[in-house]
Amino acid sequence: MKKYIILLLLFSTFCINAQNQEKLFEQSFSLLQSMINDDNNFSFKKAVFSIENTSSDQKLDTLYVNSQIKLLSGLCNSLIENRFLAYVETDKEKVNKWASVYQVMCDTILLNINDKLYKYEPFGYDFNDVFGHQNRQNLFVSKLLETHKGNCRSLPYLYKILCEELGTTAHLALAPNHIYIKHQNKKNGWYNTELTSGIFPIDAWIMASGYVHLDAITNGVYMKALNNNETVSLLLIDLADNFNVKFPNNDGTFILRCCELAIQNFPHFVNALILKAETIKKQIKVESDIDKANKMFFDLENQYKFIHKIGYRNMPEEMYLNWLVSLKIERSKYENKKLNTFNKN
């Protein structure tokens, strides 16, 4: 009897914890939904950390992450005030902010504090569990802030957060399995900022992956600067992926809500389209109504055709890593040599 009571208590505790966890997901979904078509309410930092809080084993230490971001943005402001930027166009103030964030993310900086010299080390790339297969939290900005090592998700996310803290913008952009930054200034027009290797690659580098079909560029699947609504769509799929990891046996309802809202605001967002298709495929396997299952399968076939039509081609993970390393190995081949926005003296 005593053993039965203990098991019952443990089961009750598990159910309560699961309900509390699901509540966090609902709160994060509502937050993201509230930011759509409301630029005044849009906060990338708030959205990112609400999503990361849903998957933390313990409640996210917001005091720590905010203190680290405050420290980094303070360093950015110090750079803006105390160094010369060789850029003379009328948008210099904005470009100077981008340059400071880039320097904090990618450069070693000597600091003079109370007549003592300190060396600030930049953020590095973590090749361990790049896709978060072993631990979803390896993709998180909070992990990046703690370890100073990140990946193609957390590094551009932090960059965008710091830009937001400085009162400026940074556009996320997508490539196969990859996220990077796009800026536009008056001197150079649109250009790319790659945080994993700290350079400004030309578009040819993206094309060199071999997995970017021309249709994918034409249809805005890859290489476009995401607006706020499209950025929210990206975050909605982050939230859905977290939910799948936390509740692997879910019925797909929450996942499809995230996918539908993401697709509504970013119709050619291939990650959302694929996740929706994969979720429906799982639902078909357990659907007992044959007619309904056949209808779902027909719709699924059309969805996969649409994904292919807009230019998506699957990029194997090993190929992605080789492509990523190629930017460092062949830096002179892919670096934007005309871009001297961040030259300092």
What does this structure look like?
The protein has 345 residues and is mainly alpha-helical. The chain has a domain of 127 residues. Helices cover 57% and strands 9% of the residues. The chain contains 14 helices and seven strands. The strands form three sheets. Strands 5-6-7 form a three-stranded antiparallel β-sheet, covered by helices on one side. α3 packs across α6 and α9 packs antiparallel against α10. It is globular.
Offer a concise description of the structure.
By secondary structure, the protein is mainly alpha-helical.
Record the SSE blueprint.
Elements: H1 2-35, H2 44-55, H3 62-82, H4 92-106, E1 109-113, E2 116-120, E3 124-125, H5 141-147, E4 149-150, H6 154-165, E5 171-175, E6 178-185, E7 189-193, H7 203-207, H8 214-218, H9 228-246, H10 253-265, H11 270-286, H12 290-309, H13 317-329, H14 331-334
Parallel strand pairs: 3-4
Antiparallel strand pairs: 1-2, 5-6, 6-7
Helix pairs in contact: 1-2, 1-9, 2-9, 3-4, 3-6, 4-6, 5-6, 9-10, 10-11, 11-12
